[in-house]
Amino acid sequence: MRVVIAEDAVLLRAGVQRLLADDGIATAAAVDNGEDLLSAVTEHRPDLAIVDVRMPPTFTDEGLRAALRARELVPGLPVLVLSQYVEESYAVELLSGGAGGVGYLLKERVADVAEFTDAVRRVAGGGTAIDPDVIAQLMARGRKNPLDALTARESEVLGLMAQGLSNTAIARTLVVSHGAVEKHIGNIFAKLGLEASAVEHRRVRAVLTYLGRG
Predict the structure, then answer these.
(1) Which InterPro entries would you find in this protein's record (predicted)?
(2) Burial per residue of 169-179, b for 16 or more beta-carbon CB atoms within 10 angstroms, e otherwise
């Protein structure tokens, strides 16, 4: 597995690269700006791009804009945003873009190396890894909610799915049986009109619907 890292803070960039190497994940390129990110993903075609939001020259939203452009250049490129900030407009566009392989983690809330590398592998494999605070901020935008048909418990289950939790982890978090979680997820798929296909594919589509909220 190979990744490209785009992070302007040199110590953090080197630290992430070292953590990934310790877990057997190679870094094809490590850059400090959006333009170099685009060049790197085009050249290396990595399994994942790990991108900060604010990078040179203006330190506003260059990273997310570059991530969106990278997905145009390399269709289906998995992207994991690792930032201190939630840049809402571009985040919604990235997370609700209709494809899996997306993540958004907040740097100060990444407290466990194993959980971080698990998120890296999950996003690279086409799944999702979204920090609960990111979900909360995006849900507070007040956009029309297409998920009104879901019960409170089903919405709670879908929120945990968006964080990347497995059925077993969801059951443990909610203190319910594994079968109850499977039933809730089946109801979610049915209410969102997600017809039978690969289970993981429907799971990602449900999460993207949740994050896009229309």
Answers:
(1) CheY-like_superfamily, NreC/VraR/RcsB-like_REC, Sig_transdc_resp-reg_C-effctor, Sig_transdc_resp-reg_receiver, Tscrpt_reg_LuxR_C, WalR-like
(2) ebbeebeeeee
